[in-house]
Amino acid sequence: MKRQSSTNINESDHNPCGLLWVKIENSNDINNQAFKIEVSENDTVDDLKDKILERLNNTRWKSMNDNASISLGVYTISASTSIPQQSNYLQQNHSIDVDSLNSPVDIIPNLFQKQSVIASAASGTTSATMPPDSSILTPQPSIVLSKLSTSIPINTNNTNGHPNNMISSMSPKTFNNIAHEEHVNYIETSPQRACSTSPKLISVPKASIVRPSSVTLSQATTNNNNNNSTSLPHLSNYISTNNRAYTQARLSPNDFTHQLSQVQQKHARNIEGLRYSTELVNRTNLTYRVIFQPDELAKNIRHHLFNNKQTASDPIFIFSNSTLSLERGINSISNSNTKTEKPLLSLKPIDVTNNYMHIGRTITPIEIGESSENPYHVDVNANNGDDDNENEVQTSSPNEFKTYKLITNEKQLKEASDLLSNEDQVEGMETSPKQAILLLPKGYVGDHHNGVGSHSLNEELGRSYENQKDIQEAITSQLNTTKSHSSTSSTENLPKSLEVSLQGSDTTAFIQQHHHVPLNEQEVGLIDPMIENEWHKKTAHTHNDQSQDQKQQGTEKTDSQSSTEGDSPVTKPHVRILPKDRPIPHPIRAHPKSATSSSSAQKSTSERVFPKINVLIVEDNVINQAILGSFLRKHKISYKVANNGKEAVDIWKEGGLHLIFMDLQLPVLSGIEAAKQIRNCEKEQKKGTSNGSGSPPVIIVALTASNSIEDKRNALISGCNDYLTKPVNLHWLSKKITEWGCMQALIDFDSWKQGQSRMTDSFLNKVPKKVKMGVIS
Amino acid sequence: MIEPMPVEIINWGILNEIISMDEDDPDFSKGLIIQFIDQAETTFGEMDEQLNNNKDLSELEKLGHFLKGSSAALGLQRIAWSCERIQNLGRKAEKSFPSKEQLLDTLPADTELTDSDKANYDKSNSGVPPTTDDDDLYLFLIKRALAQARLEFQVARRELSTYYNEVL
């Protein structure tokens, strides 16, 4: 809290000179709207980026981007230039490259390339503008060449330009700029694709007309160069290597085959006097992306580009690597009017809560419709296919027609990525993140999941369908365990059709909690299409012992947990005895020997799936508040803070909380008392609502500073579901949050609420006495 | 039975988790440490106040608990240990405190104590314990525990200053 204000202080150190509207480019988040960034007198584009990142600090977008991966710019549409002419031109350019460089590497056999050219920063004093006229934009190279004493063959077909201007602007400065080229090349070809690095370098697309208007003379030089008239060896070198970079990074056949919607608005950008680079993003209508150099002053952009009058409808776009890499997937880059509407399925978690999913055999269409009664209707008739098959998934979502591969484990991911990168090499296209569909619980907003651990889901689903009996046993023992030890781990099994009676609200919480516990972080993210017969086959034939292990785990767990709890977690917070073969919410370093299935999961600790939950931290010590708060922020979990038990109860009454971390020793009202009050209120609420449609009980996790058994017992008796011993191990906590949060995510499933007789609060009230689980003894 | 004093001044396993959050939030851990230093000094002062004037054991228990929470969360385990002693002495759950020789022995061999450290430590960590079994005994023990906590605080502060390469 204290720290958040610091940046504001920094900003106020400068004189704000205005606002800039910026908008994330190509995001299909409906919440993506232009927003204002305050611009100080001396802010550079780089500073702007920092501010933007700061502003978006708590978003998912931020988690995928940093200063190096984003750039600021606008789109501009060039005036008409015929493609044949360009092709012609490009061809010529290639010949020059060949001759001048003698380097096959630099010859790009792709006619649809973009050229990048350097120019010095326009002084702004030369006000001559260059009309979008090809005769002007195809300059006279021969003169340039002679002046520059180069001996490179020149194609004179396009030499109608303004050589004099060009020469005059070929100042030493220009050559200094050239000296930077190699760095630029390097960086632009790097995966991070910093859009802008070297100051004063302007790389311009090859297409002959870059700007519809207002090109200064020195920029005309640029165009001249661009148009192949310059044959300086190093320039050519630059151009061609840069071509490669761009070709790989940006251009694909899709860019050209896809006809954009007609240019609705030709931005006649006045980019004179700004330092920028451009990229051709759509050949058909010559859409360019103008990317500002990082050292360009923001106020200049405001001034030149918008004449200090910018509106929200005409924002500066924030380009990022992650969105760039998607463009192939969506087949196009569009102009500024349409691009933000483009849905980007590939990297976007899909909310499948209300969707109907049908997974068949190896080729599994997934239908995403508007309504269904079942959140995951999984057709598990699939009987064959092995792990190595990539399952094709078709979506019938209105916006998505591409075929995506459903990648469900690391192996598949690797294969798919190898495959795709091979393709890319052939086609000379970029190799960057591929599309994947992640099936996630409702409201999921966490980080991307890399697909490990889906196997255990298979196993669980398989078990849940065919081995319900086993599962019941497992759950029973799990609940037993829970009752006596307050579970510290997720279970192995997914209870699909258990019925549990309601025996008081305290136990309700337990039941609900552990009803849903089975999905842990590795499992919630993905559904493997070849769900289960296959798994059963495998288990039956090759992993017999493993499956037996799993069947026994319920009982093993009881033992192992008691031993775990028997240790003193306070004095040795990081030393926990872990049972084997158990995907555990425990810190990595405490994981002595993980089973093969969970070892891969361990690698992905950093890529967690955190469900969208609201957490309340009840702590009187600001330092502990700050630590927990920072931890939650890091994982994009929203949270509130209460300083004592009374505040906690008050905040809880406001509603919307899923999880409470409750310190027990608190001023005013102790954590124990607060937990009791909350549970009592829940009871009353439940009575009040006749049909039990009240919100599910909040999960209360006690934070105990001592490890005395009595404290823990008191915590559980008072209505806490679980406890953590302080100092909280953050690795462990993240696992626990996932576990708790997943439970909540499942509890909130709409359809689960709507009378699936199996689970959640509705049945708990409707069928109160139906079931005996020897659990709650 | 009193738990043994941890040997390492800082549990880096714990502190590193917090330091790892600096990635998202530069200087986060250092800010916390600075905040803790303020908090510890304030709390020590409040403990002094209780020891000298109010002599309220339950307040001392709360103060010990409070500082134990944050010091433990930062991995400053020897401070946390001392605070836990204060907490337990405050509620009379323990009725002894290890001798200062024992405790000094547990310090890492390379720990350097300044003269003022030693002077302060000795000054408030001396005297003959009351023979009675009333609050005076616990207040006396808490006073010693507080001296220990202060010493540990100075040692930890120095180690942290070294780590952050800055006088904290």
TrEMBL record, chain A:
<protein>
    <submittedName>
        <fullName>Similar to Saccharomyces cerevisiae YLR006C SSK1 Cytoplasmic response regulator</fullName>
    </submittedName>
</protein>
<feature type="modified residue" description="4-aspartylphosphate">
    <location>
        <position position="663"/>
    </location>
</feature>
<keyword id="KW-0597">Phosphoprotein</keyword>
<dbReference type="Pfam" id="PF00072">
    <property type="entry name" value="Response_reg"/>
</dbReference>
<dbReference type="GO" id="GO:0006950">
    <property type="term" value="P:response to stress"/>
</dbReference>
<feature type="region of interest" description="Disordered">
    <location>
        <begin position="539"/>
        <end position="605"/>
    </location>
</feature>
<keyword id="KW-0902">Two-component regulatory system</keyword>
<dbReference type="GO" id="GO:0000156">
    <property type="term" value="F:phosphorelay response regulator activity"/>
</dbReference>
<dbReference type="InterPro" id="IPR011006">
    <property type="entry name" value="CheY-like_superfamily"/>
</dbReference>
<dbReference type="InterPro" id="IPR001789">
    <property type="entry name" value="Sig_transdc_resp-reg_receiver"/>
</dbReference>
<feature type="compositionally biased region" description="Low complexity">
    <location>
        <begin position="593"/>
        <end position="604"/>
    </location>
</feature>
<feature type="compositionally biased region" description="Basic and acidic residues">
    <location>
        <begin position="539"/>
        <end position="559"/>
    </location>
</feature>
<feature type="domain" description="Response regulatory">
    <location>
        <begin position="614"/>
        <end position="741"/>
    </location>
</feature>
UniProtKB/TrEMBL annotation, chain B:
<feature type="domain" description="HPt">
    <location>
        <begin position="25"/>
        <end position="121"/>
    </location>
</feature>
<keyword id="KW-0539">Nucleus</keyword>
<dbReference type="GO" id="GO:0043424">
    <property type="term" value="F:protein histidine kinase binding"/>
</dbReference>
<keyword id="KW-0902">Two-component regulatory system</keyword>
<dbReference type="Pfam" id="PF01627">
    <property type="entry name" value="Hpt"/>
</dbReference>
<comment type="similarity">
    <text>Belongs to the YPD1 family.</text>
</comment>
<dbReference type="GO" id="GO:0009927">
    <property type="term" value="F:histidine phosphotransfer kinase activity"/>
</dbReference>
<feature type="modified residue" description="Phosphohistidine">
    <location>
        <position position="65"/>
    </location>
</feature>
<dbReference type="GO" id="GO:0005737">
    <property type="term" value="C:cytoplasm"/>
</dbReference>
<dbReference type="GO" id="GO:0005634">
    <property type="term" value="C:nucleus"/>
</dbReference>
<feature type="region of interest" description="Disordered">
    <location>
        <begin position="106"/>
        <end position="129"/>
    </location>
</feature>
<dbReference type="InterPro" id="IPR045871">
    <property type="entry name" value="AHP1-5/YPD1"/>
</dbReference>
<dbReference type="GO" id="GO:0007234">
    <property type="term" value="P:osmosensory signaling via phosphorelay pathway"/>
</dbReference>
<dbReference type="InterPro" id="IPR036641">
    <property type="entry name" value="HPT_dom_sf"/>
</dbReference>
<keyword id="KW-0597">Phosphoprotein</keyword>
<keyword id="KW-0963">Cytoplasm</keyword>
<dbReference type="InterPro" id="IPR008207">
    <property type="entry name" value="Sig_transdc_His_kin_Hpt_dom"/>
</dbReference>
<protein>
    <recommendedName>
        <fullName>Phosphorelay intermediate protein YPD1</fullName>
    </recommendedName>
</protein>
